[in-house]
Amino acid sequence: MPELPEVETIVRGLRARLTGRRVKAFVFLSPHLEKKQVPGSFRPEIYQGRKITGIRRRGKMIIISFDGQLGLLVHLKMTGQLFLTDAGQKMDKHTHACLKFYRFKKELRFRDIRKFGFVNCLALTRIEEKINRDLGPEPLSLSLAGFKLLLNKHGQKRLKNWLLDQKIIAGIGNIYSDEILFRARLNPFRLAGSLDEKEAGRLFQSARRVLKEAISLKGSSISDYVDALGNRGGFQKRHQVYAREGKNCLRCRQEKIIRRKINGRSTYFCPACQS
DNA sequence: AGCCCATCCTGTCCGC
DNA sequence: TGCGGACAGGATGGGC
């Protein structure tokens, strides 16, 4: 579900409500989260009494900082949700972790139907190491020159795979890669190193425009995505190609949108407009 | 180096 | 209604 705009929306909602709160209890409710801890992880109980000092996003990862140099590193993967709810609200079997606070009637829950996501209990220094090792730059902080450098550095990759590779650029997933390529009028099978100056510029601007607009509309609500406060996003109304197989292209109004698998991911594009 | 596929899970939807 | 298969916003690791 969540790509950069959705994760950014969740983080903004949580940051405004949780910064400065002190932890009354933090618990894992399901054993699979334990198995996903990495060497150097702490026990959840260590967070008791700590105060939240900040919440931020890096790529699709969420980092919650606590005093005492402690952190939580969260990845929602496909079906993960991080949301605030009234303390005592009934939990279903997919809720796997819960963070409670002093003098605050809401609690933070981690819910994940497919269990691909993780919540790692780590020192902030280790989180920093991990995200810097595993993630490329933020697409909205990157310069055009840096963007072009990366296109050429991984010039043999198809554009679709280039956009999806978190080590090259962090935060873009399957929906936004297709929407970005459509607006840039570039074929997802093109090789990253094959773009001329104009095309590289179009891709760069398209990525910026799509991601910024999606953030301003609070992400895309397909299926059941809602943010940390239970609100739906609005960018799904602006989708031009994603999940539009067989429908007329909204640009040329002639050709039908087609779907092809690239690296196992469904990829939607207009064969006439995107060359 | 990069592609393809299987894999980690659960739920939904579609065709028969 | 039931059943089997395909598919789903992500990421990794093995084989080629």
SSE topology sketch:
Elements: H1 4-18, E1 23-28, H2 32-35, E2 52-58, E3 61-66, E4 70-75, E5 80-86, E6 95-101, E7 106-112, E8 118-123, H3 124-134, H4 144-153, H5 159-164, H6 174-183, H7 197-216, E9 258-262, E10 265-269
Antiparallel strand pairs: 1-6, 2-3, 3-4, 4-8, 5-7, 6-7, 9-10
This protein binds a DNA duplex (16 and 16 nucleotides) through helix 6.
Structural domains: how many: 2
How do the SSEs run, as a string of H and E?
Answer: HEHEEEEEEEHHHHHEE
What is the C-alpha radius of gyration, as a whole number of Å?
20 Å
**Unreliable runs, pLDDT <50, ≥5 residues?**
none
- For the termini, the CA-CA separation is 28 Å
Kindly state the mean pLDDT as a whole number?
97
Under CATH, the topology of the largest domain can be stated as N-terminal domain of MutM-like DNA repair proteins
Q: Which structural class matches the secondary elements?
A: alpha+beta
Major sheet attributes? 4 strands, antiparallel
What does this structure look like?
- The chain has 275 residues and is an alpha+beta fold.
- The chain has 2 domains: 4-134, MutM-like, N-terminal (N-terminal domain of MutM-like DNA repair proteins), CATH 3.20.190; 144-269, Orthogonal Bundle (Helicase, Ruva Protein, domain 3).
- It is built from 7 helices and 10 strands.
- The strands form 3 sheets. A 4-stranded antiparallel beta sheet has the order 1-6-7-5. A 4-stranded antiparallel beta sheet has the order 2-3-4-8, sandwiched between helices.
- Strand 3 and strand 4 (70-75) form a beta hairpin.
- The longest helix has 20 residues, at 197-216.
- It is globular, with a radius of gyration of 20 Å.
- The protein binds a DNA duplex (16 and 16 nucleotides) through residues 1-3, 6, 32, 60, 75-80, 94, 112-117, 154, 156-158, 161, 164, 166, 173-176, 220, 222-223, 225, 261-266.
